[in-house]
Specification:
CATH topology of the largest domain: Arc Repressor Mutant, subunit A
Number of strands: 2
CATH architecture of the largest domain: Orthogonal Bundle
Mean pLDDT: 88
CATH superfamily of the largest domain: Winged helix-like DNA-binding domain superfamily/Winged helix DNA-binding domain
Distance between the termini: 35 Å
Number of helices: 5
Order of helices and strands: HHHHEEH
Strand content: 5-15%
Strand order of the largest sheet: 1-2
Helix content: 55-70%
Radius of gyration: 18 Å
Structural class: mainly alpha
Number of domains: 2
Shape: elongated
Length: 130
């Protein structure tokens, strides 16, 4: 990843939601970058110090987010070198996110649709007009 690309990724991280812990938001942002291919498999992700300095957040916060990604087998620590996206990380992340969406988020959407008496045919991009 070039320095310009890195600045763009870090710049997008600068919009924190005060209702969710920053480490969870940071984890989500890195995960999204993996899913979108901004961080390729085998590629280094921004260092803890780099993100902490750019975002003006505690390095422990960044480390906590990165450790979650390590625990999920999406990134790996290379001692003395940095953190890298693991081979197969995109496919694994996609499978995990799909499962989460279908089991956790979609049922809530369906309930909301039912409560609002919305037929799926009315939804833009699915059955209705966009």
């Amino acid at each position: 990843m070039s320095a310009e690309q890195l600045k763009g990724v870090i710049a997008r991280m600068n919009q924190w939601d005060e209702t969710t812990p920053i480490y969870l938001q940071l984890r989500r942002m890195v995960l999204e970058q993996i899913l979108q291919g901004a961080f390729s498999e085998g590629e280094a992700i921004p260092s803890v110090r780099q993100v902490a300095a750019e975002e003006k957040i505690n390095p422990i916060t960044v480390s906590k987010a990165y450790q979650m990604l390590v625990d999920e087998n999406l990134v790996e620590k290379k001692r003395g070198i940095g953190m890298y996206v693991r081979e197969g990380a995109r496919a694994l992340a996609l499978a995990q996110e799909r499962e989460h969406f279908l089991n956790e988020e979609w049922p809530k959407v369906l309930v909301r649709l039912k409560n609002l008496d919305i037929d799926t045919a009315e939804l833009p991009g699915i059955g209705g007009t966009a």
